[in-house]
Amino acid sequence: MTDEMRDALIEAARDAASRAYAPYSGFHVGAALLLRNGDVVTGANVENASYGLTLCAETAAIAKIANEGWIDQLVAVAIVGGRPDGDALLGSDPVNPCGRCRQILNEAAERSKADIAVHCASGDGAAVASYRLSELLPHSFGPKDLGLIAD
Ligand code: THU
């Protein structure tokens, strides 16, 4: 992926974060999924008065591609998060996917037969940390372990 493609994916995640429903934490997260055909599908966190039921941005985005039949088309994800300040997001540290989201991303990554790129950006845009999912979730358990991935 070129730097331009990475930056465009991060911007799509940033735009998605503006649609977060996060009245409890005040922390807005956006995720942008890049599909094999170049399409980008986004999601944002959806919080709940029963705090533990919160849906993360990555989970919301993965649900969208799964429901469209595209769970096997994922090649990369960008994640941006921070506290909103007008149109901007505050925060200087890259937002890394939580443990549950790593596992949920792994489902799509295995189905896509791709060690997907994970680009984590800070709210202020100044910091980006890029990984492969296998770095963030080593020794993963997934559909391959249940015999569901054909060669
Ligand atoms: N959050 C995400 O959307 N993705 C992550 O990977 C980390 C955390 C959300 C959940 C909650 O709404 C807010 O960030 C603060 O934890």
Bound molecules: tetrahydrodeoxyuridine
Number of strands: 6
Major sheet description: 6 strands, mixed
Q: Residue-averaged pLDDT, rounded? A: 97
End-to-end Cα distance: 25 Å
Count of helical regions: 4
Q: How do the helices and strands follow one another from N- to C-terminus? A: HEEHEEHEEH
Unreliable parts: none
* Beta-strand fraction estimate: 25-35%
Radius of gyration: 15 Å
Structural class, from secondary structure content?
Answer: alpha+beta
Helix content: 25-40%
The shape is: globular
Polypeptide structure, described:
The protein has helices spanning 3-17, 57-68, 99-112, 133-136, and strands at residues 28-35, 40-44, 74-85, 88-90, 117-122, 128-132. It has 151 residues and is α+β, with helices and mostly antiparallel strands. Strands 1, 2, 3, 4, 5 and 6 form a six-stranded mixed sheet that branches. A hairpin with a 5-residue loop joins strand 5 (117-122) and strand 6 (128-132). Helix 2 runs parallel beside helix 3 (99-112). The longest helix has 15 residues, at 3-17. It is globular. The mean pLDDT is 97. The structure holds tetrahydrodeoxyuridine (THU). Tetrahydrodeoxyuridine is lined by residues 22, 25, 27, 29, 45, 47, 54, 56-58, 97-98, 101. Tetrahydrodeoxyuridine binds at residues 22, 25, 27, 29, 45, 47, 54, 56-58, 97-98, 101.
